[in-house]
Design goal:
Strand content: under 5%
Shape: elongated
Number of strands: 0
Helix content: 40-55%
Distance between the termini: 62 Å
Order of helices and strands: HHHH
Structural class: mainly alpha
Largest sheet: none
Radius of gyration: 20 Å
Length: 115
């Protein structure tokens, strides 16, 4: 509780303020010192998902192993494991999820497009 109206107004004002340097925290760019770790965290995230959590070769398009299942697995790992444990900054989760949205994992071999 506030001891007086002035204390409450000042306290609420300070809590609502966002410093200019913290306003635009982005992935891979910016002045935040944590940006230097983004590329390594993204590489780790991709390896973790591919080799431990959602191996692409396990998703062949059969029931329960569709593209939607693969995307659910990958995106779930980003949110529930990588970001939650601090292995990936939350500013980079969109970058990692975008990578998986372009994959062909979970599509039947007959529908896969080759580059």
């Amino acid at each position: 509780m506030c001891s007086g109206i002035l204390t409450c107004v000042i306290g609420v004002g300070l809590l609502g303020a966002t410093p200019a340097w913290a306003a635009k925290l982005t992935c891979l760019t910016g002045s935040d010192p944590a940006v230097v770790f983004d590329a390594g965290q993204i590489a780790y995230a991709r390896d973790y998902i591919q080799y431990f959590a959602c191996n692409c070769s396990s998703f062949d398009g059969s029931p329960g192993k569709t593209r939607a299942d693969y995307l659910k697995c990958a995106k779930g790992q980003v949110d529930r494991v990588l970001v939650a444990n601090g292995w990936l900054r939350k500013q980079c989760k969109g970058t990692v999820k975008a990578y998986y949205s372009k994959s062909t994992c979970g599509q039947p071999a007959s529908r896969r497009k080759t580059a």
